[in-house]
């Protein structure tokens, strides 16, 4: 049918070739002022999948944004809120020979500090773009430039609910186990997809987990420290260690191993404990070499004894000092999917009452309810968590080069406790 053919490019309408041709025809009408960035954007536009407008990458002039204001700082730059006046591309308007756009859109602008090398910026952008093919990360709309500082900025999706740590502090008392399991499952699934791309995140912590509504979904952000596993595989050079100390695997801290997929699993285990408890790890002590030493010697956050034993087992397996004993994200995804599916059916329809995960969660909820009934301080679902962090407890990424740390090991009873949990779990009816 002739209606299937775009009258402008003579390609199948809305095909990859059709989209690419329209972008290509516009190449001479814009520039970032940097050849490498221009090439990055143009390559992304030429590789755009048909009907996949969520993945459009653009050069966006800074004057297309209003109400720009700083809302946060990370280890390598600042985050700004902005209103994108025109909003992202919707579809090609044949009649007017231009892209139709959505309504104005709230976005986040990630500005890089001046000391960050452009090649590192492009590496982060490239990895972020790859992870979007799996919808594992925050939307990446394009690139802009601050006209005053000349710093390049990533234009990202804006997360209304902020990051996970902020969310937990305000909303933890309103979270039920259905949401906790859903969040754990979704994180494991997205990290599994990232690992399938042969990418390791290397900086996974609650500050890099974002959402516009944590009850319905979440996304992973900040790939500034991420890498493709095949990049420089034989490099003998010892890498500097950057990150947030409580979430870094002990074998990375000690220098015994480079950052691997197993190190991301360790970080997930620490995050999982935080989702279960609402409390940041090691909040009452300085995040210094002494803490790094303790982590290498087996220190881990405390898991409350009333936590469902199946979840305790999952968390402990993730933060085992023996990296080869940790599960993969494929294994975690399968495990957490079983727990979520069974509990969700109970939560929604009242079935599966006799399954072990349901029994354990009900006991945990009963314990929490009893604690609250005997607590003299009134707590409601809208009461934020009340905790104070040590002034030297630092939850942003930074350089952490500690020398002479011991070879990682587990605490004395860790392996016995974990083995008992695994053995007992194998004997019970999970479903």
UniProtKB/TrEMBL annotation:
Domain Protein kinase: residue ranges: 65-347
Signal peptide: none
Molecular function as annotated in GO: ATP binding; protein serine/threonine kinase activity
Regions annotated as coiled coil: none
Superkingdom, taxonomy of origin: Eukaryota
Short name of any one Pfam family annotated for the protein: PK_Tyr_Ser-Thr
PANTHER family in alphabetical order: SERINE/THREONINE-PROTEIN KINASE TNNI3K-RELATED
Protein's name in the database: Protein kinase domain-containing protein
Organism of this sequence: Diversispora epigaea
């Amino acid at each position: 049918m002739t209606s299937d053919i775009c009258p402008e490019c003579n390609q199948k309408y809305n095909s990859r070739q059709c989209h690419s041709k329209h972008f290509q025809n516009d190449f001479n009408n814009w520039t970032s002022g940097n050849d490498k960035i221009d090439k990055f954007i143009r390559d992304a536009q030429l590789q755009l999948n048909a009907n996949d407008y969520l993945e459009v990458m653009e050069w966006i002039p800074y004057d297309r944004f209003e109400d720009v204001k700083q809302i946060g700082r990370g280890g390598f730059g600042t985050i700004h809120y902005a209103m994108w006046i025109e909003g992202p591309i919707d579809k090609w308007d044949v009649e007017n020979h231009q892209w139709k756009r959505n309504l104005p859109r709230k976005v986040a602008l990630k500005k890089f500090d001046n000391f960050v090398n452009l090649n590192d910026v492009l590496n982060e952008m490239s990895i972020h773009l790859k992870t979007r093919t799996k919808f594992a990360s925050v939307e990446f709309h394009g690139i802009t430039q601050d006209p005053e500082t000349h710093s390049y900025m990533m234009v990202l999706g804006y997360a209304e609910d902020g990051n996970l740590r902020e969310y937990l502090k305000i909303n933890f008392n309103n979270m039920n186990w259905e949401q906790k399991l859903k969040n754990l499952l979704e994180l494991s699934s997205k990290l599994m997809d990232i690992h399938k791309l042969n990418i390791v995140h290397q900086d996974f912590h609650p500050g890099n987990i974002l959402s516009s509504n944590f009850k319905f979904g979440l996304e992973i952000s900040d790939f500034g420290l991420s890498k493709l596993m095949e990049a420089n595989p034989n490099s003998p050079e010892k890498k500097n260690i950057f990150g947030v100390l409580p979430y870094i695997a002990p074998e990375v801290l000690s220098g015994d191993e480079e950052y691997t997929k197993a190190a991301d699993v360790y970080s997930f285990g620490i995050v999982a404990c935080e989702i279960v408890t609402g409390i940041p790890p090691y909040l009452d002590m300085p995040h210094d070499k002494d803490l790094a030493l303790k982590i290498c010697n087996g220190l881990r956050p405390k898991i409350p004894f009333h936590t469902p034993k199946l979840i305790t087992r999952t968390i402990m397996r993730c933060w085992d000092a023996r990296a080869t004993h940790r599960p993969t994200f494929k294994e975690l995804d399968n495990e957490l999917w079983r727990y979520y599916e069974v509990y969700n059916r109970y939560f929604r329809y009242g079935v599966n009452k006799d399954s072990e995960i349901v029994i354990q969660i009900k006991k945990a909820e009963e314990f929490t309810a009893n604690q609250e009934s005997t607590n003299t301080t009134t707590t409601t679902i809208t009461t934020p968590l009340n905790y104070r962090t040590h002034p030297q407890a630092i939850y942003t990424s930074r350089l952490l080069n500690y020398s002479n740390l011991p070879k990682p090991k587990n605490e004395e009873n860790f392996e016995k406790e974990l083995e008992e949990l695994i053995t007992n779990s194998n004997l019970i009816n999970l479903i």
